[in-house]
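Troubleshooting log. The previous run stalled partway through. Resubmitting the same two chains, unchanged.
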Amino acid sequence: MLEIKNLHASIGGKEILKGIDLSVKAGEVHALMGPNGSGKTTLAQVLAGRVSYEVTQGQVRYQGKDLLALKPEDRAREGVFMAFQYPVEIPGVGNAYFLKAALNAIRKYRGEPELDAMEFLSLVNDKMKLLGLDETFMKRGLNEGFSGGEKKRNEVFQMAVLEPRLAILDETDSGLDIDALRIVANGVNSMRNKERAMLVVTHYSRLLQYIIPDYVHVIAGGRIVKSGGKELAQELERTGYAGLGIEETPPVPAGR
Amino acid sequence: MAVSVNVTDNYVADFARFEKAINGGEAPWLQKARRAAIERFQAMGFPTQKQEAWKHTDIRPITRIPFQLDGSAEATRLPGDLIEAFTFGVLKCSQLVFVNGTFAPKLSYLRWLPEGVRVRSIGEARQMRPRELEPYLGKLAPFDKHAFTALNAAFFQDGAFVHVPKGAVVEEPIHLLHVSTASDRPTVSYPRNLILMEEDSQATIIESYAGLDKGVTLTNAVTEIDVGAGAVLDHYKMQRENDNAFHVSTTAIHQGRGSTVTSNSISLGGSLVRNDVDTLFRDEGSELTLNGLYLLHGQQHCDNHTFIDHAKPACTSRELFKGIMDGKAQGIFYGKILVQKDAQKTNARQTNKNLLLSKESFADSTPALEILADDVKCSHGSTVGQLDESAVFYLRSRGIGEETARAMLTYAFASEIINSVKVASMRIKLDQLVLSRLPSTELLEEGL
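Second attempt completed without errors. Output:
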């Protein structure tokens, strides 16, 4: 489904990704772990189409298409979804309105009929319950005044409604207490199936106790330095990144 | 400036003709006031950009054009369907219509009003019952500092006179619709509105200014509003004239003890627009919410000046003006808050936010706080910026096209003001007007 070959990307002239190779097949869950500044978030943002990152080398094929040639909205319409590490607050745009516009834009692109308000509401109702969101949530401004946990739940809720083929979760665990983490992980797990691939980006192995990956990759200095099965996450839990000889560097601005 | 001297003289000469036409058919105090106003105008002349209050607004496009009064009442007999677009659909309201500054009785109607409430044409009042006007007219909006206010005081013929007596509650809005039309020659009108709210009364007043055609018109409006103790007023001014129109307005609001006023100023139309809103707390414990939205495109220029005079203690003012500029449009905001020495326990907050949608658009924001009391809470903030690109990306990453994403965010910026409009049918109309200015309107409207 996703083939990343020798991907180099920079921001403001500074190279962050220095040759990423990664292959993800349908039905697989891959975890991408790495310390701050390793390039995890950059990779997620490049895949979603953030323009402030410049791809200088390499290619990304997604379902046989040149992903990097697609506009961000077309990537979403083709089934790519990124759950943001820092979801943006947009006062004045209602959650329900936003999500219905997004869903219908995607359906239109795929030649499916657009949903009216009633159809939309019945579709989202179950998914709201899954993420423990109440009715008032839909009427609020998009992420407006949401707590960190609410924002992350909203990301996974959007993912549940938009049903992507490739889901990229960028540090969805950060800032969550254990209850919220369980709710979010439960939401993600409920979406695992044979057709859908997931790339779970995280600093800590905590999330991977709830979302069990098929493969784990360790990224450092803009390259994948080690790959393995789910046991690699447990190894990292014991030894830390230092155990792999990786130095933690101070955080780099995530290009928000 | 030689040009401006000539222009001033032209207006003075026009006044001589105007005065002659009135031919003494008016109360002496009013004739005297008109004469004083034109003399004051003659002494002041039109403002230039050398004056601080007019720094960003060059009014020569106005003074270059030989505007003429529409002397006939012909235009007031236009068919009702022509103004339908400027009404608020199914809104149950009383409606007074003025065409080129003259009352149009056939287009106007009053619904049931509580006893003692008077809603009538000021043109009629000044001829039939001038004594009702004398204590108020020109007292709230003095003409000694503002050339356009002076011209209005000299030339005004008509407008609305609303008098709500003590304790009366007018539940349905009163819509004052001022329509401009000019066929072959540039036409000026001087609407004059006087709104008197006595103690503990309540009302909602909507002033609309609209253009009937693409003609070159100048509207120079003055609205004086006196709000008595404990009274509650919701006031809206909606300016939606055509892109060839010029609009200069002064709104003066005086608030008595414990009164509550909300005033919303919406500017959508006009090529050159200048709005002055001057408010005074003349007694303690009152509240004012002053909101504004200016949505400009093309070559439009809109200058909003507000002055809030906290003359007395324990009053609260909340001011929020938002501007959206596209094309080569220019949006100016100047907001002065004066907290006088006695005005302890004042609570004042002023915010001005501007959104620039194009490289050539322009915004200037000048907050001015003068605080002479020591136990007060005052804040101000102003921003000028573009759409947040991370928000644009967020929306796009969910499948929403770029143009729609930008339109959504622009609408969201304006929505804070739109949602503050309490009259539902006006809010819906404003919503449509704002949306019609944005691309991808269809998708947006569907979602609302």
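Takeaways: The mean pLDDT of chain B is 93. Chain B has ten helices and 21 strands.
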